[in-house]
User: Fold these one by one.
Assistant:
Number 1:
Amino acid sequence: MRRHLQFLGLTLTLGELDERLAWATRERPGATALLEHVLGLEAAHKLEERIARRVHSSGLVERKALEAFDWNFQPKLDKAFVLELARLDFVRRRDDLVITGKTGTGKSHILKAFALRACEQGIRMRYARCVDLLDDLHAGLADGSYARRLKAWASPALLIIDDVGLGQVKKRGDEPTAAHTLYNLIDRRHSKVSTAVTSNIALSDWGRFLGDATLTAAILDRLAMHAIRIDIDGPSYRQHVATERAGQRPATAPPSS
Ligand SMILES: Nc1ncnc2c1ncn2[C@@H]1O[C@H](COP(=O)(O)OP(=O)(O)OP(=O)(O)O)[C@@H](O)[C@H]1O
Ligand SMILES: [Mg+2]
């Protein structure tokens, strides 16, 4: 039997065969229940492995779930709307999504949760912080792999560009501006596949961040103007956590004289 399991690639059952047999001896399930039990565990394991591979290759380094999102903390955010978007029908419709709001309001949390859902649903997705995406493309200019890299960023059904406006967009002498590079990418993706973006700066400040007002206007015309928009108007959860922690810290003893 171990040989069959090995050949079929049923690695979980192979590793836990003694456990399964002990269960069958103890519970005495019927043939159907036994098969259902063994195959069910193996299938769940295979699915989890597949999701983990997709998460890894997508560039998503942190798993966030909407189940862990405290909606009461952000009462102005339309929970029903976000949950509806989380079904990812907007990806199938090839719509874009732009989430803006001040720092710490949960923008990245929501898109990372969407990213995970995409992996679970088998939607081809890539995730990157804006500065990392630009660095990757600009590295391609140096070693001749720009076209290949651009294609790789342009093709996924969902591309998440997180944190536009955060970090330093590095520009070496002869490199195109960030606006130029991002324009090339957004123009390729627009109306064909879905792009989701978060930003904690106003769209009117993107030009300064990306280094070219005219090309930024062209990006915003393709992306933001026709995208599904969410603006999170509320407090910072990071600040909330820091305040809570400070409140829990034991009072320091007065210095002894
Ligand atoms: N409503 C919430 N419930 C639970 N956790 C939250 C909530 N909002 C934010 N967080 C958590 O707070 C931290 C900061 O959130 P997040 O990174 O999503 O903020 P952001 O809006 O993207 O900020 P920035 O503009 O600085 O990138 C994360 O660890 C996130 O999981
Ligand atoms: Mg963020």
Note: The chain is about 55% helix and 10% strand.
Number 2:
Amino acid sequence: MTHVLVTGAAGGIGGAIAEAFAAQGALLTLADRQPAALERTAARLGRRAAVRTADLALPDSPAAVVEAAWSGHGPVDILVNAAGLYPSLDMADVDAASWDRLFAINLRAPVLTTATFARLAMKEGRPGSVVNISSGAAQRSRPGGGPYASSKAALEMATRAAALELGAHHIRVNAVSPGFVPVASDCNPVSARYAKAIGTNPLGRSGTPEDIARAVTWLAGPDASWITGEVLRVDGGSSTGALHLPRIWQLDDAPDPAAALEGHTR
Ligand SMILES: NC(=O)c1ccc[n+]([C@@H]2O[C@H](COP(=O)([O-])OP(=O)(O)OC[C@H]3O[C@@H](n4cnc5c(N)ncnc54)[C@H](O)[C@@H]3O)[C@@H](O)[C@H]2O)c1
């Protein structure tokens, strides 16, 4: 039975990823720092899942979570790093503590879980698959999103670097880069104004955690066995360009294209 470790499993996207793997019959270990929400995710799975409450921003915690999953429920086949924070923090307001805390959870934690996972898999000669959850912000920042964008850009490079080194050991490392997905999170609050402004995309509907989860299970699984170091955008096409801009030749009194999209985005 495939054993999948999902971090951030108490959250919107991590929870949907856990559910998608459970639906495929996988054995799950779920990690997050919110015990009650983690238990709710585990209860939704309809099958036994091990839960590990941990603050993955602590230096030793990521390794400990992987080791506990491995020794508690057998070798881990797939690691999904979905825990993350996306605070609003202007570059002019950054201080050492806020930057370090953000990078500890968004970058150091997935790098350390991957390192521990890789060492254990290599020791036992087992193949493996890692999927990191990045963000469209890695390519395109927004006001107040600079530290977050920086952490995800670094995560994408760490994904490629790990893929380069671990491929010889049959360990694939990829990332899924979601567009905006409403999740109603306590730790990652998003204003209605922001959600409306960022929610527009060429496919004309809001993304769901399940959209992301389906991409993760595919990328982690055997159908993607010759893919590594890839960043798969799952964003309704929102990263393709600036959909809200007028056409170059549009007359000044022509209707605003953003207005034409009203009611088309949800
Ligand atoms: N929702 C979106 O629009 C969106 C878009 C792009 C990328 N993402 C990424 O998707 C991932 C999941 O985000 P989400 O939208 O589901 O948010 P969410 O808040 O629902 O989930 C994030 C989870 O991470 C956990 N977490 C945060 N800090 C932690 C720590 N120190 N230790 C352990 N767990 C910790 C939280 O408890 C929470 O359960 C994040 O990496 C986020 O950056 C989200």
Note: The domain at 3-241 is CATH 3.40.50.720 (Rossmann fold).
